[in-house]
């Protein structure tokens, strides 16, 4: 069995490629980072270190890699012969892989009528559907009908802290012991393959992806943005500050009300989930850079994303959102010269002010909610985090 995976980054190697190999797939990565591609091909393997007390290092064999730009023909051939296609390139990069994917799928359809699923594993609601929409932009209506009949784009939710460190033979993928890969079975078309080892298949993905994005990723982003204000370099160091931990936990509790009300989730189980997630964030075997976790603040502050969606929905219901408002405000204060979106965001705020920025990037028009966010923005802009 052959798997083709776009994105040989932290999640690609540490999580998705790793589970695909354990299921018995040969894994071919597609990336744009030539150094990474060469490293994988030199060894036909890579290393994954488990971030627990033992730091066990595992070698993942039978892997190879291609460059999606300079080896397009070979990527198309690999799409033709693949049994499953997966991605973890970052949601903003899905539009960049859609062209070669569309070409490959059409070539595959011309050569055989085998069904295939394409799963985009990104931190976003319905990333596979987003990828499909990008493919739709490129192909004709006749080609789209062919794709629709043979290709599934099941959505998924993935959860695992995945980082990397430099080793003597190249990057070592670092992963926490916990993982969750949830796949929407009702959107799959190919049922002839073994289930992916360790993945969970569900009929309705929404409760899983919303819980992941609006509680786990919201809490993570909140920690990163508060840490930035305090000058703390890692998530773990920031969470040693009780004030940070209290605001993060409170924001997670606020956001959990959205999940509890939307999906009638059990509130005790939700409390356990929040505590377990905080424990994962605090894992002392991990040193997670806040610039990684806070990366792309424009994406994270957008309307449907982790910080704004729960705040908007709860505010509409008249439920507490003070801590979520403080998280959004902290996001608007994330000022990292290493992050392109942060540079754009801060440039916009300097030229237009925070009020306009909240409308422009988060599309929040509710005046009372905007005032609340602005209140925290003003209180925190001198680097002090506040009691909500
Ligand atoms: N790292 C985590 O803890 C984690 C956990 C869950 C979900 N995610 C999600 O997984 C996705 C990947 O995150 P990551 O942390 O692995 O990022 P990463 O930057 O480590 O990896 C992304 C990889 O995609 C490659 N890439 C970019 N554009 C490409 C293109 N056009 N064609 C082929 N490859 C391309 C990059 O070169 C890089 O190797 C993101 O959507 C992220 O939100 C990450
Ligand atoms: O990948 P992003 O930029 O959407 O979010 C950064 C982190 O919060 C994220 O990568 C987490 O580590 C991960 O989602 C945990 O499963």
UniProtKB/TrEMBL annotation:
Q: Which family does it belong to?
A: Belongs to the mannitol dehydrogenase family.
Q: Which GO terms describe its molecular function?
A: mannitol-1-phosphate 5-dehydrogenase activity
What is the gene name? mtlD
What EC number(s) is this enzyme filed under?
Answer: 1.1.1.17
Catalysed conversion reaction: D-mannitol 1-phosphate + NAD(+) = beta-D-fructose 6-phosphate + NADH + H(+)
Q: What is the lineage of its organism?
A: Bacteria, Bacillati, Bacillota, Bacilli, Bacillales
One GO CC annotation: cytosol
- The molecule here is called Mannitol-1-phosphate 5-dehydrogenase
What Pfam families does this protein's entry cite? Answer: Mannitol_dh, Mannitol_dh_C
Listed A to Z, the keywords are: NAD, Oxidoreductase
Species this chain originates from: Peribacillus loiseleuriae
């Amino acid at each position: 069995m052959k798997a083709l995976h776009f994105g040989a980054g932290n999640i690609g190697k540490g999580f998705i490629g790793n589970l695909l190999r354990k299921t018995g797939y040969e894994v071919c990565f597609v990336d744009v980072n030539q150094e990474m591609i060469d490293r994988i091909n030199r060894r036909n393997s890579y290393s994954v270190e488990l971030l627990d007390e033992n730091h066990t290092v595992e070698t993942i064999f039978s892997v190879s890699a291609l460059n999606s730009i300079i080896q397009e023909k070979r990527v198309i051939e690999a799409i033709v012969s693949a049994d499953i296609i997966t991605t973890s390139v970052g949601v903003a990069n899905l539009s960049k892989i859609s062209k070669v994917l569309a070409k490959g799928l059409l070539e595959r359809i011309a050569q055989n009528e085998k069904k295939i699923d394409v799963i985009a594993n990104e931190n976003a609601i319905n990333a596979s559907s987003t990828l499909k929409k990008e493919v739709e932009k490129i192909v004709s209506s006749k080609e789209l009908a062919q794709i629709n009949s043979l290709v599934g784009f099941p959505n998924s939710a993935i959860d695992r802290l995945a980082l990397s460190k430099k080793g003597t033979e190249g990057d070592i993928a670092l992963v926490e012991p916990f993982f969750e890969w949830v796949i929407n079975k009702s959107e799959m078309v190919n049922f002839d393959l073994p289930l992916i080892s360790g993945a969970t298949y569900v009929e309705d993905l929404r409760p899983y992806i919303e819980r992941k994005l609006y509680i786990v990723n919201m809490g993570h982003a909140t920690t990163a943005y508060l840490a930035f204000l305090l000058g703390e370099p890692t998530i773990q160091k920031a969470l040693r500050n009780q004030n940070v931990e209290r605001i993060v936990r409170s924001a997670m509790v606020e956001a959990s009300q959205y999940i509890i009300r939307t999906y009638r989730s059990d509130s005790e189980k939700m409390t356990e989930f929040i505590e377990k997630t905080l424990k994962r964030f605090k894992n002392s075997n991990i040193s997670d850079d806040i610039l990684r976790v806070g990366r792309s603040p424009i994406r994270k502050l957008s309307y449907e994303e982790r910080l704004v969606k729960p705040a908007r929905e709860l505010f509409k219901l008249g439920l507490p959102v003070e801590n979520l408002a403080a998280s959004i405000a902290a996001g608007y204060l994330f000022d990292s010269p290493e992050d392109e979106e942060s540079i754009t965001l801060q440039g916009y705020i300097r030229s237009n002010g925070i009020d306009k920025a909240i409308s422009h990037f988060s599309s929040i028009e509710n005046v009372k909610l905007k005032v609340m966010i602005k209140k925290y923005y003003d209180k925190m802009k001198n680097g002090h985090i506040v009691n909500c």
